[in-house]
TrEMBL record:
The species this protein was found in: Vreelandella zhuhanensis
Cross-referenced Pfam families: DNA_methylase
Cross-referenced InterPro entries: C5-Methyltransferase, C5_DNA_meth_AS, C5_MeTfrase, SAM-dependent_MTases_sf
Keywords carried by this UniProt record: Methyltransferase, Restriction system, S-adenosyl-L-methionine, Transferase
Catalytic residues (UniProt): 76
Protein name: Cytosine-specific methyltransferase
Keyword set includes Aminoacyl-tRNA synthetase: no
Length: 443
């Protein structure tokens, strides 16, 4: 069977689908010891703790000699939309090590995965560089953004995939065709399905199944009664969080800057954020409602409002004591002769409680912290097992032995950095189809 080398393997989310379809995982490498321990326990023994820039890794690659396929989810922190976009982040260039391995092992194909921000940030320059770099060593590269929800994963997770095939091949790689409806969320662009087997840009909506939901995936795990491995939380958070939990309903989040039914405002939770008078509420709501209007400035995230504008828009005379009280309580800050909401008080959304009957938001490494996401029904964060299920891992895949706090925290990180195994198996099937046809042609 086809020999696979996996780089930046993590705990093996991308590799599982290939293993399930009979590919031979001859070598996996990651510089994270916890990732490799979990990989060896659940996926395959041929896994090693390696820094891809080290001589030891390069020696391993030389010893392998040749393989049919290289997989690699090279680090994405410098590109991620969830964190700072660092043009000079050294992790942004680690794909060069993957290129070096491809050049040395000369596989028929390689598959690389990264965050979709790679295409959007820095004007897409890195996507072009990656395509150009692999082209120079003899590979044709196809690029596509896939959303895991479209392939039966109960989670919105958009990632960019690179599939490289040797220029000497006349075969075409066909991306896996979506099987499930993938509703577009606010602020997202529509994904075009490229190179489908039947020559369609989009599958027939009538043939698509309903998107898998959070309820479909974890409704049997509501109680923390140990009925599944890793069904634990790290139950340590500030006492004031409990007051916030009580105020956030399904489909809502703590958010001061967007006036909608989905927003719960900090001033509505005095036990956590401090009491305010009815007039002070009017001041805060006036600023929140108008701070992004262009007539008050051009700062994209919001502008301070002068006192005169606050009074005109609110319809009453504001006293210095009312403003001073809001400043002292941390609700307001003074800036450029005006007033704006302060710090985390006007975050774009924290303590988000998703809807039971919708797909999950993207599972991140911070899901252990209820400050980011809450269970749809319970006043707690998602357990590690719930995150694993939403990511598409089978319950037989264990992320910890003793379920200590350290192991659980590492498990959340490994799950959040993974490719959903359900999606990886769809990609593996498309890869197998390509390689078999190419083998027949070569014969």
């Amino acid at each position: 069977m086809y020999k696979v080398v996996s780089l930046f393997s993590g705990c093996g989310g991308l590799d599982i689908g290939f293993k399930n379809l009979g590919f031979n995982l001859v070598y996996a490498a990651d510089n994270d010891k916890e990732s490799i321990n979990i990989y060896k326990k659940n996926v395959d023994e041929n896994a090693f703790v390696r820094d891809v820039t080290s001589e030891e890794f390069h020696s391993d690659i030389s010893a392998i000699g040749k393989c049919d396929l290289i997989l690699g989810g090279f680090p994405c922190q410098g590109f991620s939309k969830a964190g700072p976009k660092k043009h000079g982040d050294h992790r942004n260039t680690l794909y060069y090590e993957m290129k070096s391995a491809v050049e040395a092992l000369s596989p028929e194909m390689f598959i690389a995965e990264n965050v979709d921000g790679l295409k959007q940030n820095f004007g897409g320059k890195y996507v072009k560089s990656i395509v150009d770099d692999f082209s120079r060593i003899g590979y044709h590269v196809e690029v596509s953004i896939l959303d895991a929800v479209a392939y039966g994963v109960p989670q919105h997770r958009r990632r960019i995939f690179f599939v490289g095939t040797k220029n000497t091949s006349s075969q075409i790689f066909y991306w896996p065709t979506p099987t499930h409806d993938s509703p577009i969320r606010n602020g997202e662009f529509s994904i075009k399905v490229v190179g489908s087997l039947f020559g369609e840009d989009h599958p027939n909506p009538a043939t698509l199944q309903k998107a898998k939901t959070i309820r479909d995936s974890i409704s049997d795990l509501v109680e923390l009664n140990g009925q599944a491995s890793d069904h634990k939380i790290i139950d340590s958070w500030p006492e004031k969080y409990n007051y916030i939990f009580e105020k956030i309903s399904q489909g809502q989040k703590l958010c001061n800057v967007r006036h909608s039914e989905a927003s719960v405002y900090t001033w509505e939770i005095p036990e956590a954020f401090g009491c305010v008078t009815s007039n002070q509420v009017k001041i805060l709501e006036t600023i929140s409602r108008n701070r992004r209007h262009k007539k008050f400035g051009s700062i994209p995230n919001g502008n301070p409002l002068p006192l005169s504008a606050i009074e005109e828009l609110s319809g009453f005379s504001v006293t210095s004591g009312e403003i001073e009280g809001l400043l002292n309580a941390g609700y307001l800050k003074e800036k450029d002769g005006g007033y704006d909401l302060k710090g985390a008080m006007f975050c774009s959304g924290l303590f988000k409680r998703p809807l039971w009957d919708k797909p999950s938001p993207t599972i991140l490494t911070n899901f252990h912290n209820p400050r980011y996401f809450l269970h749809p029904e319970e006043n707690r964060p998602f357990t590690l097992r719930e995150c694993a299920r939403l990511q598409g891992f089978d319950d037989s895949f264990n992320f910890s032995l003793n379920e200590t706090k350290k192991e659980l925290l590492a498990g959340y990180r490994l799950v959040g950095n993974s490719v959903p195994p359900i999606l990886s198996e769809k990609i593996a099937k498309a890869t197998l189809d390509y390689l078999r046809k190419d083998k027949v042609r070569a014969a």
